[in-house]
Every structure is written in structure tokens, then in C-alpha cells.
Records
---
Amino acid sequence: MNVLLLLLFLFMAATAAVLLVGVTGFALGGRFNERWGNKLMQARVVLRNLLTVAAYTVKPHGGRRTPNRDARLLALRDAMLGRGGKMGPDVRKVCQSNR
């Protein structure tokens, strides 16, 4: 099985699980919801974005968009690590190889 397809299913399951726990906690209210409600919904948004990237990556493009996909994945990695601003050397290398 393709690793990216496995990640796609993993992100789908994790998103559904976090959503279910968050909605259940919200419905029951109480201390759990006060403590974890916001963090669970933030985690759901991050997982949903990772799911979108994984789904776009798995989608066949006939090999034409692989460099763009790689650059997007590297940029997403940099954003998650808090490295905003200028493009990193590895992303620049992928982007400039298209020209």
C-alpha cells in the first residue's frame, strides 16, 4: 500500500476521532469541555488541513505536478515548525528545478 494513501486514511480517522471527542465533550459540557474543547477543535483544523494536503498529494497528476507538490509539502513542514518568512534552501531547490 502506498505510504501517502496510508497517511490519507490515518488523517481521516484521526480527524473523525478528534471531532467525535470534541462534539461529545461539548454536548456533555463540564470541566472536560472547558479544559480541552478549544484545543480539540484546533487539532481538528490542523488534521483537516493535513488531510487536504494528503488527498491532493495522492491524487494522480500524471507526474506533472510532483515538484510543485514537493515544494508545498516542504513549505507546510516549515510553517508547522514555525519557520515563516523566506523560502528555505530545500524549497528553493525544488522550485527552481521547474524552470
---
Amino acid sequence: MCSRSGQVIETGDAASSTNMGFRGRNNTMYTYQQQHTAFPYLYCKRVMHQDSLTTLPLDVTLSTKEKHAKEQEDQAYIRDGA
């Protein structure tokens, strides 16, 4: 693989890049550099297949705070032997 994402998959090391530019402020020009970690190896938002290329979304169910609080109350009720 020759792509940067391919390098990350093969080596496990995150790829990074430097963004350089300039901007004007108070009638003065300033230059800047920003270092970015572009492709981290660990990506917790998707499931990676064994081919190390194909991904799928996580199978998660989100719940509201109210639903979570109710579940906590139910578990405490069961645990405490009501």
C-alpha cells in the first residue's frame, strides 16, 4: 500500500501533517504552523474487518439520560432486594 492510510494500517503509527499559512491581524501579517495527527491507528467509532480495510458502524443503542436514570433505579431496586 502506498497511501498514508495504508501506511497507518501496516505500521500502526499515526500519520501526521503540517499545515502552514498566514493571516493578517491589526495591519500585520503573521505566519503559522499547525501539526495535525491525520490518521490515528485506533479508531473507536467503527468496527474493522480482518482485511484491515473494510469497516462497519458500531452496533450501539443510544439512550436518553432519563432512560439511563430509570435503568439505574431498576438495578438498585433489584440489587437491594426491595
---
Amino acid sequence: MRGCEHCAYFRLGKPIRDKSRLIKVCLSSVADKHRLLAGTKLLREKKNDEYISKWSKVYITPDLTKDEIEKSKALRFELEKRKKDEEK
């Protein structure tokens, strides 16, 4: 990532034939984390219903604890429920 001074990255898990592995990226500041996560939508830019980026199959997600994962799922469920209620 450009502008990130003290970051480290490494692959997770053992290599498996014909399968890609996760890469963990450790950033030096919360600001770097927010800047990286804010740019993820650019990976999936479309033009005429086709992805225009060579990075369209790259997914970037924050590293969450189990509690944070559960809270995130609950929030997504609540948002989905509200959207369905609005449509009615």
C-alpha cells in the first residue's frame, strides 16, 4: 500500500495445489487501516456490467474478533430487515 511506512504481510496456511491462500497485512496505524478499507470498493468498479479492474477477485476484510463478527452479522441482518420493511 502506498503511503504505509511500517506494514508487514505474510501468507496464512499451508500451500494447497490450485488454491490461493489468504494474506494477512499488518498496518502501523488505524488511519492506514481506514484508508485501505475505504479503497476496497474501487476493486470492484464496473463498466457495462463488467469489472474493469484486474483486482476484481481480491477481497479485503478487517480482522475481527468473534464478538465483533457476531455484532456485524446482527447489524447486517437488521439492515436487511429494515430494507425489506421499507419495500412493503
---
Amino acid sequence: MSIEINKVGMDSAKSSRSDANKPNTNLVDAKNTDLANKTSNKELVSLTPEAKKLGRIHENLSSETHMDVERVSQIKKSITEGTYQVNAEKLADNIIASEQTFDGEDV
């Protein structure tokens, strides 16, 4: 009979130890609910200065609608004919200028 009592005592001690290691789900759920209630009313977004500048560049480019249609057709024709030549120096200068624009430097 004492063996049965000890077994019961050991089982309840084991369950007490295992329960101590388990997170209190009621407390976790309460914290998640509080956090959800605080953040559901408003969402905050923070943009880096680079992202803001890129947005301004995008707005400026999208507002410009001019395109030299004749020049585009000339370039298409010379590409098709295989006579289009790339000015490597001018291309390099334009790439550098573009990069400096994104880095915040004026050319």
C-alpha cells in the first residue's frame, strides 16, 4: 500500500515539474491580444531617406511624358539594320551620373 501512495506522489510531482516548464498560454494569449489591439488601429511605416528620394525621382519621371518619337524610330531602325554604335564614353558618363543621383551627389 505504501508503494501505491509513493507512485501517486511521484506521478503528481512529475506532472508538477512538467507543468512548470510549459508556458502559461492564457498569459501569452492575453499579451498577443493586447499587442494586436494596440497595432490594429494604426500601422506605421518608416522609409529610409534613399527610399524617399527614389520615390521623388519616380514621381518626376512619371510626370514627364515627352519622348522624341522620331529619335526612337531612328534608333530602332539602326539596331535592326545592325548599324547602331554605342558611344562607350558617353554611356559610362551617364551611368556614373545616374549612380551619383542615387547617392545624393549632384553632377
